[in-house]
Amino acid sequence: MPGITYVRGDATAPQGKGVKVIAHVCNDLGGWGKGFVVALSRRWPEPEAAYRRWHRERAGNDFALGAVQFVQVGPYLWVANMVGQRGMRTGSKGVPVRYEAIDTALGAVAARAGELGASVHMPRIGCGLAGGTWPRVEPIIEGRLTGEGVSVTVYDHD
Q1: What is the DSSP letter of 51?
Q2: Which of 10, 28, 30, 128 is deepest in the core (most CB within 10 A)?
Q3: Helices 99-116 and 134-144, interaxial angle, to 10°?
Q4: For residue 122, what are the β-bridge partners?
Q5: Number of other residues whose CB lies within 10 A of the CB of residue 3
Q6: 71: pLDDT confidence band, cut at 50, 70 and 90?
Q7: Dist CA 66 CA 86 (whole Å)
C-alpha cells in the first residue's frame, strides 16, 4: 500500500510520469479568487470557468458539498474541483471545511484516478482558507486514496 509522498513545490506543476489529477477544495458559494485557485487560474482558465458554470447551473446539476467536477487541462492532466467547504468565512458554525464532504469527494477522485490509471496531486487540501487541520485530512486521504492503491503526492509550496 503506497503512502503519501510529501514534496516541496507547486501542485500546479505535478511531478512524475503518466496521467495526473490535481485535487483541490472549493467552496459551495461559487466563489473563486483566493488561495490555491489563484495559482490554478494563472496556469489554466478552464477549471475556474467550469466551476463558475457548474455553480451557476446548480439547479440542474449535482453541485453540492461532496461533489466533484473533473476538468481536463492537458492530454494527461485533469483538475478535480471538489466542493469541500461550506461558505468562505469562520463563523458561528466554525471553520468552512467539511471533512465529510472531502471524504465523499475523494471517493469520487479515487474512482476516476482508477479509471484513468492516474496519480493524484494536491496542496494540503482543506487546510488553508477552509480552516481545516492536516491531522484530520491526512487519514481521509489515506483511507480514500492511498488505501485503495492510488499514488498521492502532497505539495508544500515554498
Answers
A1: H
A2: 28
A3: 40
A4: 154
A5: 11
A6: very high
A7: 10
Cβ partners under 8 Å of residue 27, min gap 6:
83, 85, 86, 87, 88, 96, 130
Model pLDDT for residues 13-55, shown as the tens digit of each residue: 999 999 999 999 999 999 999 999 999 999 999 999 999 999 9
Nearest to 2 by CA among 153, 155, 154, 146: 146
Give the β-pairing of 68-74 and 77-85.
Answer: antiparallel
Please name the residue ranges forming H helices in the chain.
36-43, 46-56, 99-116, 134-144
Q: What are phi and psi of 93, to 5 degrees?
A: -95, 15
Q: With 0-12 CB in 10 A as exposed, 13-18 as middle and 19+ as buried, what is 117?
A: exposed
Q: How far apart are the first and last CA of the chain?
A: 29
Q: What whole-number distance in Å separates Cα of residue 106 and Cα of residue 97?
A: 14
Query: 52 is written with which cell numbers?
Result: 463558475
Supply the pTM of this predicted model.
0.96
* pLDDT band (50, 70, 90) for residue 1: low
> Helix, strand or coil for residue 106?
helix
